[in-house]
Specification:
- The complex is a heterodimer.
- Chain A is globular.
- Chain A contains twelve helices and eight strands.
- By secondary structure, chain A is of the alpha/beta class.
- The longest helix of chain A is centred in the first third of the chain and has 26 residues, at 3-28.
- In chain A, the strands form two sheets. Chain A has a six-stranded parallel sheet with strand order 2-1-3-4-8-7, sandwiched between helices.
- In chain A, helix 1 (3-28) runs antiparallel to helix 11.
- In chain A, 45% of the residues lie in helices and 12% in strands.
- Chain A has helices spanning 3-28, 43-51, 66-71, 76-83, 118-131, 149-160, 180-183, 189-192, 208-223, 255-263, 266-276, 282-305, and strands at residues 58-61, 107-110, 137-142, 165-171, 174-175, 178-179, 199-204, 229-234.
- Chain B is α/β, with parallel strands linked by helices.
- Chain B is built from twelve helices and 14 strands.
- Chain B has helices at residues 6-20, 44-48, 60-72, 91-98, 101-104, 134-138, 151-163, 212-224, 243-253, 268-279, 302-308, 312-323; strands at residues 3-5, 24-28, 53-55, 76-81, 114-119, 144-146, 168-173, 180-182, 196-199, 204-208, 230-234, 237-239, 256-263, 289-293.
- The chains are: A alpha/beta, B alpha/beta.
Chain lengths: 320, 326
Amino acid sequence: MNKELYVNILQKMIEIRVFEERVAKIAKNNEIQTPVHLYVGQEAIASTVCSVLNNDDYVVSTHRSHGHYIAKGGDLNKIMAEIYCRETGCSKGHGGSMHIIDRSVGYLGSSAIVAGSVSIAVGAAFTAKLKGTNQVSVAFFGDGATDEGVFYESLNFATLYKLPIIFVCENNGFSTHLPGFTRQSNPIVSERIKGFNINVEKVDGNNPLEILDSITKIVDIARKGDGPSLLECDTFRWLSHVGYWQDLDVGYRKKKDVEMWMDRCPIKFFSNVLLEKNILTEKEINKMWTSIKDKIEDYVLFAKKSPLPNPVNLFDGLYS
Amino acid sequence: MRKLTYAKAINEAQHIAMRKNNDVFQIGVGINTPWYVGQTMNGLLDAFGEKRMIDTPVSENGTTGIAIGAALTGLKPILTFPRMDFMYYAMDQICNHAATYNYMFGGNSPVPLVIRAIINRKGEQAAQHSQALHGLFMHIPGLKVVMPSNPYDAKGMLLASIEDNNPVIYIDDRELYSSEGDVPEGYYIVPLDKAKIELPGNDITIVSSSYTLETVRKAIEMTKQKNISVELIDLRSIKPIDKKTILNSLKKTGRIVVVDGGWVTGGVASEIVSIVSSEGFEYLKAAPVKIALPDIPAPASYVLENEYYPDENKIFQVIKEIVNKE
């Protein structure tokens, strides 16, 4: 049992939760226009997976990217500034909430095209293998991405070439408003893809212990050169597909389901684990929350004080 | 200087580039097959091995994403589509990813990717094995698009594309593969943003590119009997288009015909006519003219093909009409 690792994971989860809830407030106050797809409720997955990665391991993700960026160690001033579309943002105000990047920590960028970044992650794994480094590449995506053809192309290529890539499917049961069983003849992703001869594991995406156990093994397999894996993590997003609402009144999900999942809060669960194992005290956990909340306010301040991009520089970054 | 065929020039460029830089590798559906790519890939598999010459599963979309991922992480891929028609499978990766990434991430994410696309044509191959899509890609911001018409440019522009830090669509044409020209040994580059005055002239400007230039050259032979002095511009670069060279030529001649291998609506011919109409209006002595493919998918039967593709007689006719207008 690695106490330091557990504490780091909890810290990351809280960081993501506070950040996302703060962004929800910013969106509600109409301070920004860029559409925000919030990770509230799914924190365990990004935090735990990234906790076993090295700085130079590659990560890509999707429109719901804030959690992965933060978990990988991305600069928090720059992501907040990007959400405010400022010049000091990680994408200089050109990307907004859905297109964030921090190459210094291996976060290669988020694409808002469903399954758009999965094959890109395979390419990064290809580089690692060709160059003989022992880096791994991780693609985070949702169950919606497993409806796209390119997802299967990516699985096939990765297994054929035995690439060091980990496909992490955050199955929250919906693609925007459509539940998995209305879209997929086999809604259990890990079952559906077994024919690809890929190593597959399925875990409770709200339980960092389960995730940690699987991802540690999977990363080891990839680094050793024994090929790719898919990790299916069952989870739930507390808020709407996009925005800060709860989406209880639009018909596709019921209040009792949302409440049931909120009850299974991954942060609450893991906090209890750390308390029970005497790794942290109640006081220490509360202190974590407070100190993180303070820091998040600093990032908001940084963003608000930052200049908007100068329209004169509209063409900047078109070509390298 | 020694002469090489167009195909050999492309082949030589790739040998040079892959020897010069170990990060250059090739990937594509069918790159190691002898029949898809003519002579252009000769010897590469033997010289550089399977690890750097990846003939992929039939997955153009995924393969393009993989090439992009490799380009983002320090490799230099040459992604080849032996039939340009099959690129449509990869449109999302090319247009939503490769083309956008550097701008979308504020200049922090260049995609140094060469996409080599081969135009096939005729032989009763019909609509899905004959498309020239340079006009389509010209429309997409973030890409560069080039079409060399001769062996010298074919080698130099491929080497330049490989050096470029942006996604470059390099389009070559099977019908040019056996054409010969002077090609220097060793490494050299041809800029990716300059048209070339192939023939200086005074009466009329003709702008064309790639294989279509062969037909134009034949038409120009015919104009010699009529004492018409034609200025011939080889476009070479489709995106960006070298406006300056075109407008300077128009200033001299006052008349322009664009002969393009794509469809007449919304492509390169339309774009150039638009440019000269708005930016060269004062120079025009006659209305600009487009000669391009009609808005029809390519037919199979050779009699229909002959009607479909503009020939030198048609081009000559158009030139005579414009020049005789006063």
